[in-house]
From TrEMBL:
Listed transmembrane segments: none
A molecular function (GO) term: sequence-specific DNA binding
Domain HTH araC/xylS-type, first and last residues per copy: 191-293
Keyword terms of this UniProt record: DNA-binding, Transcription, Transcription regulation
InterPro entries registered for this protein in UniProt: AraC_XylS_family_regulators, Homeodomain-like_sf, HTH_AraC, HTH_AraC-typ_CS
Gene3D superfamilies: Homeodomain-like
Pfam family membership, one: HTH_18
Signal peptide region: none
Identification of the protein by name: AraC-type DNA-binding protein
Species of provenance: Micromonospora yangpuensis
Amino acid sequence: MSEGVGSDPRRATTAARWRVLGHPDGMLIFQARCLVEQHGWTEPAPEARHRVLLGRSGVYRRRLNDRIEFSDATSVVLTRPGDELSVSHPLGCGDSYTCLEVDAEVLAERPDAAHWLDRGGWAGSSDARLDLAHRLLVAEASRGLDAFELAERLHLFLGRLLQHTTRAADPPGAEVDRAVRRRPATLVAHRRLADRAREVLAGHGFTRTLDEVAREVGSSPHHLSRVFQRVTGESLTAYRNRLRVRAVLDTLAESNGRPLRAVAADHGFADQAHLTRVVRDQLGQPPAQLRRLLT
């Protein structure tokens, strides 16, 4: 592992393991795993380059330009020079992510330069297909690519990422009903409840029942389901499945030969057939095929 790579604001106050995947001209891609030494906020650090942060596992809270939000394995964050980012780990667990850093000169040569150079402080969520493209890029870079091929693949990925973030420009909860929109305090409370449910699901495994999650966040199952759908635009089940599929991809990429029926049990699926159905629905390919691609 390489230490102290890139311009990540967490490196001064949070222990991390780093692995550089490649650095063609004006670009750098690396993976990092944060090891929590403190639960409080790190010092705000200004960004020096345009960066893309792609969640892989774990949970944390981020303060990006004074806006505090929850981050997990589905999160995507875009920053530009001058943005300020700090993080905390209130649950006491770390997180892992992939970071892509790009010089402004490299972005300026792209036909979609204005969309990148003018965009900063954006945070959202990846869908299953974008997450798989991210993981395949990491797997291919880990096998070893020359600078020419890696640069080309990174530019293609940036184009795909830009399309996704443009479609997802509206923040979660943009379609909140008028009654709630007129009560800011209610909207804030609902967002906090949804974030707390995300923390429970992302930070404590996937074997808890809906009743157990609702009790932990101090809500009824019905109210929690309705609020979560309203705030995030998806059901609790859909969000849980997105997290589970990402965790399954991590397991498949480890190449440990663990039987798929055991992988299904580890991640709270009813059986191997249920695992295969959910993964295929989200990614278009069965787990066995994805294992071959990722290892």
